Amino acid sequence: MMEELKQTALVGTEKKTLDISSFPESIRQCLVDGDPETQFLQANAYLHYYRLAGQYPRLYSGAVDEFIIEEERPIAPDSLLQLYPKFVLIDYHLRDAILRSWLNVLIKTGTIVNPEIVVNLLRDGQNAPAATKAMITSVVGKKGAWIIENDPALSFVIQKEAKVAWSEGTAAERKAAFSSIYATDPAAAIEQLKSTWSGESIVTKKVFLEWLVDHPSDAAVAFSESILPEFTQQPKEKKTEKECRRLVAAMLLRTPGSSLYTMTTERLDKYFTKDKKGLLGFVSGKETVSMKLPESGDDFWNAGTMDVVFGVDGNGDIALFHTPSQYWLSHVLTNIPMTYWTGHFDGEYSRCVEYWLTHSSFTTIVSGSIVSIFQGALIANAQIHNDHLLANVLINRWKASEKLTLLSILEPMDFERYVANNDLWDDFETMAGGPFDAERSWSLKFSERVLEHVYELALKNKPTGLGRVIALYAHPDALDTLYRINEKARNSSLYNVWSTGIFQIAHTPLEVRNKIRAISPI
Amino acid sequence: MQFSESQVQSLAPNPAAFTAGKKLSNKEQWQSFARSERALWGAIKGSGSNPYLVQIDMLSLAYKCTCPSRQFPCKHSIALMLLYASSEKHFSTQEEPEWVQGWMDKRSAPAKPKAETTSRTEENLAQLEKNREKTQANRVSSVLEGAAELTLWLKDLVRLGLLELPSKSSAEFERMAARMVDAKAPALAGWVRSLGRLNYADGSSWQEEALGIIGKLFLLLSALQKVDTLTPEWQQTIRTLSGWSQSTKELLADDEAKAISDHWLVIGQELETTSDDLTIQRSWLMGCTRRRQGLILNFGTRFSSIESSVMPGTVIVGEMAFFASVLPQRGALKIPHSVSNSLPAEPESFDSWMSVHEFKVACLRENPWVNDIAVIVRNAKFVQSDGAWIVCDSDNRFQPVVPDYAFEKVMRWLAISGNRRLNMALVLRSQFVIPMGVFEDKKYELL
């Protein structure tokens, strides 16, 4: 019937007359006599509805997945979820940091977001850094995981179960699985690493050793001790093998009590001399400490030992170091904690630092200026060991760019004192460089002082660009001060300088951080 | 009544207006804001010397702002609603200021027909009526002429065969469409254009679509030829289908118009921009206590934004007046009405696609040109079949989802349901369905 209609329709009634004999009686009865076109148009209209009425919904022949995704974790409280819409109001450059604080509370409380937020969170997080994405995947629950699996456009990766990832995953997945276990149980992670260590490629071994050097633990040190022989120098050694030796040795050097640390420090002790010579020694009664390195090397300070024991190659920069021994010393000065070095200076950091930085044997002239050859080693030591005391001693010696690398190692109080003593309230790099993040903030008093300073500068038409720094690091309780100053600033003709530079950028992040802090578990 | 952010978003005339409103939705940016039982209001500094005064009618959802923006609602109204959505507790309940009270009182007063400015004599009235009848007769005559021409065009088409259709230029369709516009039958022009818009490059699928359009159009043209012999409802239906416009103002002022009082759930909204820059907003409503559905149409152009007054997902308590038709669907909400977020009862639903089909056939019997039927299907779920989405009922019978349905909405359904079968509100359109929302825990969740 339909075929007949279609065929006639396509070629036209001029060439083919519609044969209605196959049409249902009910339709035929309705067709009135007329020209072939009218009869066709009538038949087509009636048949259209006839078919429509008979087109029953089809039965799905496939298997319908009836698996119901039940969430096991509870939904986060409304007070936390209601903060999410505010993120869009936060400056783009700050959003990720504040979002992470918010996600962190969800993760810490073992809760997930509600269904209304899941899709938006996944969509908004598509271009977020990998670490943020990983946090998002852990709060979207099972439903969110299903959505990620079914929408590749979201470009999220659901982490495989650690054991599965370890045995079957890609290099990145294995590293992620290892680090996730290590974060809570370093010994278990090391045991897992041990179980496959012999079969790992040298490149993979290096990757894990690099990671362990940056994340030391007792288990990692014991593991390093056990694998040190594996990297004993060979006649035909690969560069990567030597690098592995250097990494293992560095970890052991950094750990008091390790065999390498003990052996090295016992050896170093022999080069220290003490006497009461000189005016200082006579007046203070303190002994003058010095370290005398052999001019032309000995059985310890020689290229062979340095390579075999520490994996250190070459003789260093001859423009900086007077002798190869000084270069090798800089390596151990970088790695061995300051407690050892200050031990030779009666535990005094400042004396110890003074010695390494100013002793005539350890300085050189570069571009007409006197430069300490161990400056880099000491800064690196402070960073490796997160040595607040060393950082504090070092930072007060310089006002140059070197300080920036030390700011993040300082104790918060030392940072605030440093800023106040040096009147650095409007120095963007300093203010942005402290040991803070969205969760570890300036003290309330310091925050209020910063706000007063930037307000005064704004009223002098001197924008500081500190809005984002305040948004991230100011104490959440400084929100009241921010509002108070804002009210005060409204009457000024330079309100815009304050408002656009500070207030508009800082108030929503501070408000959100304030609420997150109120909700966050202690 | 509490708003959700997504509901406010649905009211925004465009995404830029919503983003702009969002940026102003911090309480610090407002000089003052407060609420009463029926309204929200606030003052916000703008570019002028005086702050803009913003007011929101919470009962029947309307907005007013003193800013010069032509967008409706403007960013300030959006901002005030967003502020209320996120910080309701910061709104103190106060006595309405004069400017709010005056506006609200005026809004809540029932609409009265405008008083005659000059007293008309019987002779005047008779003349007016005569003029109206003459205008009407002229239009009917013009439309009938157009219909006859279009019938002839259709006959030519079937005489020469539909295989000619793909080779026709768009100008040929447009020429006939323009002729229908000249004949004061713009809706007939729409039918012609829809024939021209078929995808003739897509195999043979266009053939059945073309036959469907021609079938419905021919039936309409046949009905037009004897429109004078039909009942008033049929006359109105046929005229509307031909392009007679319907005035919401006249409908609301007409005490004789059919009106139904109910809790109307706004199950969804759709925005369509036509090729001639006309924006059509369709809002589908379903009565919570009677199996009635309503369609509210709002129109916008490049120069005038849509004046949206219904928020998807809300429940409007009040009377809905319907335009006369054999199957009344399109209507308008009478004032006063109130808006709420609580669902008193789930609108009546169908247990399967089979019963929906019976309902659809019954609707077609009433009005063969009916389109966009809103229904609720019990225990429905999305299923992916050959790369396309379908909605299965509890018997696993299915209806295909419109091809351009946003994947994000399916994801939202999954996030809400966890793959569980839920009662789903949908709109039937041609052979497809448009899922709008689902019912869960006695709440309606928009997709």
3D structure, described in words:
The complex is a heterodimer of chains A (522) and B (447). Chain A is mainly α and 522 residues long. Chain A has 29 helices and five strands. In chain A, a hairpin with a 2-residue loop joins strand 4 (363-366) and strand 5. The radius of gyration of chain A is 36 Å and the shape is elongated. The mean pLDDT of chain A is 89. Chain B is 37% helix and 25% strand. By secondary structure, chain B is an alpha+beta fold. In chain B, the strands form three sheets. In chain B, strands 6, 7, 8, 9, 10 and 11 form a six-stranded antiparallel beta sheet that branches. In chain B, strands 14-13-12-15-16-17 form a six-stranded antiparallel beta sheet. Chain B is built from twelve helices and 17 strands. Classes of the chains: A mainly alpha (522), B alpha+beta (447). Chains A and B meet through helix 1, helix 3, strand 1, helix 6 and helix 8 of A and helix 5, helix 8, helix 11, strand 12 and strand 14 of B.
Summarize the entry for a quick read:
Chain A is built from 29 helices and five strands. By secondary structure, chain A is mainly α.
Please specify the SSE layout and strand pairing.
The complex is a heterodimer of chains A (522) and B (447).
Chain A: H1 2-11, H2 25-30, H3 36-54, E1 58-59, H4 78-81, H5 92-109, H6 115-124, H7 130-137, H8 141-150, H9 162-168, H10 171-184, H11 186-197, H12 202-214, H13 218-227, H14 239-253, H15 259-269, E2 272-275, H16 278-284, E3 288-291, H17 303-310, H18 324-335, H19 338-343, H20 349-358, E4 363-366, E5 369-372, H21 375-384, H22 388-395, H23 402-407, H24 412-421, H25 428-432, H26 444-459, H27 467-473, H28 479-489, H29 495-519
Antiparallel strand pairs in A: 2-3, 4-5
Helix pairs in contact in A: 5-29, 6-8, 9-10, 10-11, 11-13, 12-14, 13-14, 14-17, 18-21, 21-22, 26-28, 26-29, 27-29, 28-29
Chain B: H1 5-11, H2 15-23, E1 30-35, E2 39-44, E3 52-57, E4 62-65, H3 75-86, E5 92-93, H4 98-108, H5 122-160, H6 170-182, H7 186-196, H8 205-225, H9 232-242, H10 248-253, E6 259-273, E7 279-287, E8 293-300, E9 315-322, E10 331-333, E11 338-340, H11 353-366, E12 373-385, E13 388-392, E14 397-400, H12 407-417, E15 422-429, E16 432-440, E17 443-446
Parallel strand pairs in B: 1-5
Antiparallel strand pairs in B: 1-2, 2-3, 3-4, 6-7, 6-9, 7-8, 9-10, 9-11, 12-13, 12-15, 13-14, 15-16, 16-17
Helix pairs in contact in B: 1-3, 2-3, 5-6, 5-8, 6-7, 7-8
